[in-house]
Amino acid sequence: MTTKELNSKLQIVHVKGKRFKCPEGYRKIESGFAFFVPGLGYLAFNDSKYIPYMPLGGRKALESILKAGGMLNYDDIIFIREMDAYGTSL
Fold first, then answer.
1. For 28-36, which contacts have Cβ atoms below 8 Å and span 24 or more sequence positions?
2. How far does CA 30 lie from the centroid of its chain?
3. What is the rounded average pLDDT of the residues 9-25?
4. CB under 8 Å to 35, separation ≥6 — which residues?
5. Predicted confidence (pLDDT) per residue in 28-87, tens digit
6. Contact, 38 vs 9, CB < 8 A?
7. Which residues lie across from 77 on neighbouring strands?
8. In which band, very low, low, confident or very high, does the pLDDT at 89 lie, cut at 50, 70 and 90?
């Protein structure tokens, strides 16, 4: 997919209670908002690949990114999936 196509699919979702696999087992998110792309998962950067990108500005920061047109490129971005109740990625 192109950057423009990915940007058009970005959704802002609440991630409270979601669990993501990491080397120590999993990380449970206490609160916050993140970008989600249906079929791909949650947007994360390569250098923090075990949790979704959740800016300090929260939902307003993500809305600002969308209003500006989305991400500039996806070169350093990966998509991660949350874990289900059995510890496998959805």
1. 29/54, 32/58, 33/58, 33/59, 33/62, 34/62, 35/10, 35/11, 35/62, 35/65, 36/10, 36/11, 36/12
2. 15
3. 94
4. 10, 11, 12, 13, 42, 43, 52, 53, 62, 65
5. 999 999 999 999 999 999 998 899 999 999 999 999 999 999 999 999 999 999 987 666
6. yes
7. 45
8. low
DSSP state of 53: -
Task: Give the type of residue at 58.
Answer: G
Helices (H), 10-72: 58-67
- Sole residue written with tokens 């249906």: 38
DSSP at 46: G
Segments making up each domain of the chain, as ranges: 3-80
Cα(46)–Cα(73) distance, rounded to whole angstroms?
13
